[in-house]
What does this fold into?
Amino acid sequence: MESNAQKYSHAPVHDVVVIGAGAAGLWAAATAAKRGLSVLLLEKTPRTGTKILASGGSRCNLTTTLTAPQAAALFGPKAARFLRPAFDNLTPVGVREHFAALGVPTVEAPLEKIFPESQRAKDVRDALQKDALDAGVTIAYESPVTALVKACAISPGATRWCLGVTGRDTIASFGVPGCGAEKVAEDSGFIFANHVFLCTGGESVPNSGTTGDGYAWLEKMGLQILPPVPALAALTSPDSWVHELSGIALEPCSAKLLDGKGKRIAERRRPVLFTHKGLSGPGAMDLSGHVARGLQLDPSARYTVHLDLIPDHSPEDLRGKLVDGAGQTGRPALGALLPVALPRRLLAAVALAAGLPESIIKRGELPNLTKSGRHDFISTLKALPVNIDGTGGFAHAEVTRGGLALKHVNPRTMEVNGWPGLYVFGELLDLDGPIGGLNFQSAFATAQLAGESVAVAPAHASEG
Ligand SMILES: Cc1cc2nc3c(=O)[nH]c(=O)nc-3n(C[C@H](O)[C@H](O)[C@H](O)COP(=O)(O)OP(=O)(O)OC[C@H]3O[C@@H](n4cnc5c(N)ncnc54)[C@H](O)[C@@H]3O)c2cc1C
It folds into this structure.
């Protein structure tokens, strides 16, 4: 009787099967197909690039004005070292040039951002999808991969990759003909590949299709997964005065995160927004990965964000302005003497936090401010403390912190060490950057390396 190995020895083997048609998967699939490889792109949902469509307020902040080294540095020292080969190979300028060549010119925006000139995220997604299709990539929708192993039961001893896939059409069109006996169910079967691009993303916004599927497969291979936590999410605060300031936006602002012992953990100079639950805006969201990781390690940990409401002026500068104002006739209101217009509600909150009566603000009683009162007021303007007890969670996080440990991946190729033919890139890796087009830059640049590096002559072509 024919063995399974004999039965499938002539089964079609794709040069590359890409798992996940997000930013990274679309880019890498096109890159590999342009090099003459047969590429099948399997996507779980009915569409490609769901997060691209939602990104940047549906405008898609697709990269940054920063240089490659500056952009990589924002991921932290270890990740920066890992990302340098990818960012040097595909710089932020290179990403812009690529989109321009695809018919999507880009423009600069404040805070080092780059958007498509049309301000439409859909143009970015459509261009990547068309590029892949034009290069010959076959895209199979609603085709979730359910398993990924090196050699499976139906091809024992083989070194090619075996993927379990569901979706009746997928099996009929792209699977192994006649593998019915091995089907788990009518709509599930196997697909073989010489190389696998695994780019299923993280766990953020799981209803978009990213439910962390890649982690379990990699863990089964004995690879380390840094536990995923939400990042680039809003921060929640138990302080009711913070909720009452909902709607107030601070720009400029600098936000400093401190742990329960007052140790500085991180700082971002970016706009901050008060919400009915706490703090949002890039300045707060950029700090959220630290809070989520800290609370995961110790759920009783305490955090505080100090908001510098007037970051462009030193305490001495502010003191000079208030002292000068006290000498003026007409009793100018305290707020009017500050170099930045801050809402009265916010100034009242600052006065309270500084231990001063609210009337100081309400009635503009500047001359009554004592020297120590002035000192406390200025110190609080420069570091308004907001207690933080959590984040908005995965449902609202723009990215995931954690993922496949970088030590397992060759930073020049994205191939997984010890697993020839398996490439992991994009957000599935333990990489997350701040807001500002950095995460797409990382997805595109790591995808480019994988697409360029995969062997043109299939490594295991002759194997059954
Ligand atoms: C609301 C929002 C706004 C954002 N805005 C920006 C921005 O402006 N700029 C920026 O740089 N970054 C932004 N990001 C982050 C950015 O979208 C991600 O970092 C980036 O999309 C990661 O790309 P990826 O290809 O690795 O993963 P994803 O884009 O998440 O793609 C993964 C794909 O894999 C598919 N998949 C998952 N499991 C399976 C499976 N088992 N089988 C088959 N397919 C599977 C998913 O359905 C998905 O299509 C934003 C994120 C969100 C949520």
In short: Residues 234-392 form one domain. The longest helix spans residues 438-453.
